Amino acid sequence: MIFWFSATGNSQYAAEKVAAALNEKMISIGAALRDGHYNFDISEDEYLGFVIPTYAWTLPYSVASFIDKLKLSGFKNQYVFGLFTCGASSGQAGAALYHALKAKELPYNGDFELVMPDNFIVWSNIPGEAKFNKILRSADIRLKGIIKKLLDRTDGRIDMSVPKMPYLPPEEMSTSQGAAKLHTSPLCIGCGVCEKVCPEKCIKLVNGKPVWEGKCSVCLACLHRCTLSGIEYGTDTMGKKRYTHPGVELKLENEY
Fold it and tell me: What are the beta bridge partners of residue 233?
């Protein structure tokens, strides 16, 4: 069973390749959070994998929240791994995952790192086309090597140090109180995609426009998935190119 979390498609792409090679079922963490579904049955011969992005060199809040609520039936020391997509380095994300799983009394066979296009455009910009394509080609080569190791059940990197942050803290958003860094621009047409993709369900359409109320994991799925680039994060993202992985289609639901 492959649990995956992805706002822009990087980790989804990796999860799809891994799941196909290992003949495993994929479960979207974002969809499971929206559904409130945390109970899963796992068979004795299954893998247990977590394919997730790195947020500020640790786990996304949504992933940590999901693992905390996760209940597995039938677990008998299966091979457990993490695969982190990142812009440059996964930092202490592996240590954070190790401790999150340890708290659930789950073993850990280690993690692997996959560099993909950095898309946290609050801090950076999407790479130019030449660099972008080079990163994707290198990622495909690296991913094939990782899959071979997974098929051989080779242990990955295991970092047991205590991370500085177990996850990236969520931001409290409140459009009604004027305290939401995420906001619409005049380009927004109220299509509702942002509401559908939010893993924390903190976006609602009010009078045909999205408002943010509650804990936000700052995954930026709403911003990148908006087809008209009608959502901004303060002024930090204005004029910047958006990103979704060219090799995947948006998936909003799970088959449990």
Answer: 182
pLDDT of residue 77: 84
**pLDDT value, residue 97:** 98
* Candidate CATH numbers 3.40.50.1390, 3.30.1490.20, 1.20.1540.10, 3.40.50.360; the one for domain 2-151: 3.40.50.360
CATH number, span 171-233: 3.30.70.20
* Residue 18 near residue 83 (C-beta atoms within 8 A): yes
Helix (H) or strand (E) holding 20: helix 10-22
Q: How far apart are CA 220 and CA 228, in angstroms?
A: 15
**Helices (runs of H) and strands (runs of E) counted in the chain:** 7, 12
Residue 170 has pLDDT above 90, yes or no: yes
β-strands 80-86, 48-53: how paired?
Answer: parallel
CA distance 63 to 160: 19
pTM to 2 decimals? 0.97
Burial of 38 (0-12, 13-18, 19+ CB in 10 A): middle
User: What per-residue confidence (pLDDT) applies to 44?
Assistant: 86
For 248, residues 6+ apart whose C-beta sits below 8 A from its C-beta are 9, 12, 13, 16
For the chain, state the CA radius of gyration.
18
Asked if pLDDT for residue 45 goes beyond 90, the answer is: no
Section 114-134 average pLDDT: 96
Please give the torsion angle defined by the CA atoms of residues 100, 104, 110 and 111, in that order, rounded to the nearest 10 degrees: -40
SS3 state at 68: helix
How far apart are alpha carbons 156 and 6 in whole angstroms?
22
